[in-house]
Sequence to fold (493 residues):
Amino acid sequence: MTGFNVSSGPLKYDTEFAREIYSLENGHHIKKCMQCGMCEVSCATRKEMDYSPRKMFLLLRTGQREEFFKSNTMWMCSTCLMCKVRCPRGVPIVDVMHDLKCYAISKGYTERAQAAFYQSFWKEIWSRGKQFEGGLMARYYLKRGWKDIRKDAFRMKDMGLTMLKHGRMPLMPPKSVKGLKDVQKLVEVAKAQLQKGADR
Amino acid sequence: MKYSFYPGCSMEATAVPYLKSFEAVAHALGIELKEIPDWNCCGATVASGVIGDYPAQVMTSRNLALAEPHGADIVVPCSSCYMNLAITNRKFKEDGHFRQMADEALASVGMKYGGSLNVRQIIDVMVNDVGLDTIKSKVKKPLTGLRVAGYVGCQTPRVFPWEFDDPEQPVFFDKIIEALGATPVKFPVKARCCGSSHSVAQPEITADSCYNIITSAQDDQAHLIAAVCPMCQLNLDAYQDLVKERHKLKTSMPVLFFTQLMAIAMDLPPDAWALKHNIVSPFTALAKFGVGK
Fold:
């Protein structure tokens, strides 16, 4: 034993939590992980993560609910797909990360900056069918509040002005998608289908 | 050569120079592009993390349904758009259960997708449809002596590994650079991550990733970096000041879309180069090819 932070007390497994995670869209893949650590050495943002994907999967299997909600692992994933192409067990790790983000948001764990970014980005798509940087940033900073605005103001202002000067920051949003109602309905229908499948 | 064209949100905003140069280059190469009418966002790398993979894919499939009547394969320049469209398309073709569910969803808005199209990455189209010989034959001003670090980025080669290129050390992009008369440098980080959308919530991650990429290009004595993906180009170009400040980096590295380089080598009018949009000035690196402001 090399770690002093491991208690000798019995480890309590929360199998109910593990089962809930397995029931997510790609959750069952977690069972396939053989703990080899290939994802860990392939990950572009491993040093930013408190738990590597491998460790995160072990946490989930043992049902460590609190540790999961405290961790930043899924929010650090940049979807670069390196782990997905290398995983010897064929676990689509990136897709599992999507589920974990989704799950955290649905349970109200949205205090991380990345969660605010994800939600703002999605609101943009939902409201006009396309992405508009100006709208995204406005929504993001409204969510993050005054402290973040002050922290980032200088840095972001300079960059914004430079991009404006080079004609790469439109001030007006693009025209909304004409079939926006269809886009929204498609998402609603798909979510309902997914829910129905999960309830079965 | 006819294609349906999915520009994606960034080509209308932060990646304007990509759109301008690609359209001009495509025209000169005899590629006929028809933009998918009323296309919507592909969901990027974000939608799946808020609404789930399947709903995001159903949303993306609207674009496939809209493109199908035109009957031509879809060409996609952005790596993230490519990932979402190509994976969704593949699921329509190969995953019966997915197809049944997605058909049902599409029918609810009176749409249908028969799965008859292919989704093609822009590099794939350039190498396998246009062909390197054709590109070479259109080059009027070879970029001889220009050392280029070809940055392919992450998703482009890894969505379907080995289908059109090596997922970790891709080669096709370098072949295009070579066809323009330039010299592709070794650049081992060519398919590593640029930090992607961390640029908003945690720009330090983007700055660190970009630092690795820029210094690798510098180590190989590259004059500039050529990019395929709008997000990579934006991070490397617009965040370069932050990279320099954070890592005490002195020299700059211009970052161009590869279609901008093609437009220059093919001697298209300066409008097609669209260089005024580049934030790190590329003019010194390109001076000997008659490129000025």
Observations:
- The mean pLDDT of chain A is 92.
- Residues 13-109 of chain A form a domain with the Fumarate Reductase Iron-sulfur Protein; Chain B, domain 2 fold (CATH 1.10.1060.10).
- DSSP finds eleven helices and no strands in chain A.
